[in-house]
Target: ABC transporter ATP-binding protein/permease
Amino acid sequence: MAKNTYKQDEILEEPFDIRHLLRASSYIKKYQKRMIIAILLSSLGGAFGYIAPMITQHALDVAIPDKNFRLLFSLVIALLALYTGSIIFVTIRSKIMVEVSQNIIYDIRKDLFEHLQKLPFQYYDDRPHGKILIRVVNYVNSVSDMLSNGLINIVLESFNLLFIVIFMFLVDVQLALVVLCGVPILTVFMIWIKNKQRKAWQAVSNKNSNLNAYLQENIVGARITQIFAREDENAQIFQDLSQDCRRTWNTAVRYSNLVWPGIDAISVCVRAAIFLFGLVIFGEGNKSLGTIVAISSYASFFWQPIMNLGNIFNNFINNIAYLERIFETMDEPVTVSDKENAKEMPTIRGEVTFDHVAFSYDETKKILKDVSFTVKPGESVALVGPTGAGKSTIVNLISRFYNVDSGRVLIDGQDISEVTIHSLRSQMGIMMQDSFIFSGTIGDNIRYGKLTASEDEIRKASRIVCADDFISRMPEGYDTEVRERGSMLSQGQKQLISFARTLLSDPSILILDEATSSIDVQTEKALQTGLNAMLQGRTSFIIAHRLSTIRGCDRIMYIDDGGIMETGSHEELMAKKGYYYKLYTAQLEEVHKTA
Ligand SMILES: Nc1ncnc2c1ncn2[C@@H]1O[C@H](COP(=O)(O)OP(=O)(O)OP(=O)(O)O)[C@@H](O)[C@H]1O
Model:
């Protein structure tokens, strides 16, 4: 997806590219047998329907004038049988196709979702999430309909058209030719209207996608909107986007509403021509009433398949663009992935080495220039420094959320780019500032890192991190349902749950990135004992702006200007009176001022 915002339309007017269709065919291969059955059933159903006007002709021209009621009765029974057969076939076909299209939706969504889960952080940082949702939900629905019903309908409508033409010629060649004279007029009308319609519906799709992106952004940012009292401005933007949707929708519907009156007008003219030619021009009495009525019926059927083929063509053009957007997402490179011969990471002891590491998020700015250090197993390391210095970047590289530009990150002497991501990350505990809480119970949330954990284990982990107290006071304790993102919990409570979750997963390397920022000082003091227990025997990296919380770490690294400016224990760095000393004393003064 082009990196864009809710203000930018997606590109949907793509030149037709057959490769997308060929690639999409892999999704229908599995269901081809069922689709062939559906085509056969529909063709039979259609053929049955088209025999009906011939029977009517026979009734009008033979049975009724001859007063042959036996024949008339047989013809009526035959008509009923044909219609019943046709309805049964069409019903079975619809059932098959509903199943096939739902299966195709499932297959495409599964592939898309699995791929989306592997995409790097960067992908989600750069795009409006609402537009990703539109692809997974709306575009997939539309595309699967094209791949299932669309493809079948092409075959079907072509058969229908062929049947109608054959039956018309069987009934009367001259009058059939009169009907065909309407085709060029219809073709010109269709090319004009379908082109307009396609562009109009693409505009609708784009405006909906923009609205969705803005809506999603606003739901997530609702608190900020209210904090900054931005409701009126946002309502205006939303209104503008909604108006875009309404305007484009009205235009599209206007064109769609023109279609049938236009076709009706052509159809009426053609039928008038049938009567004119049948009764007057080809000579009175030359064409029987039954023939004229039968041809007139075929003529009224004739436009439907042409129209449907036009609709299918339009849908195809739109859906090819949707397909391209879907495949573009599926092809989005998984920049951080397992190498072909990646090994399993053995049980981690905890030695972490940065060997001349350089890193940048994009070409424009080097975030880390040439960083080298080694942390011993079990050592606790604090990363401090000004905002935006690169502290989180360093811990993100240890977990291999990004690949380094040059140099190596080693754990126990093993280059982490050579091992599988799962075996690496499953031995790490990473806690970020935003402690994400999933919908479900508190117990489920703590169990997230170790699905097999027992109730006792969950309680024990919670007790260590001081979460057991507040959880037990909740109406249903560990079974209390928390809503999506844990909206009923305070930030501090979310962080404590997150601590318990991390502790339960028993990681060898622990990364705490501003993990205690929302916990009040009192709870933090209480948590300190638990935290110390948690750090025991694990290598840990702690980022905290509240420097009082990291004083006890074995080592403190001061990060700035793309590298490590100072390193040592709290006492050593204070004695050195360098960057850390300045930062620490400035923070102390701040605390004294506000006290
Ligand atoms: N996903 C990203 N894409 C592009 N640039 C990024 C991304 N994440 C961070 N940066 C940039 O990289 C630099 C280092 O960011 P990082 O988050 O590592 O800083 P930090 O020291 O942890 O800051 P803070 O203390 O504010 O959390 C910053 O200039 C930031 O703008």
Notes: The longest strand covers residues 352-359. The pocket of adenosine-5'-triphosphate is lined by residues 122, 125, 361, 367, 385, 387-393 (CB under 6 Å).
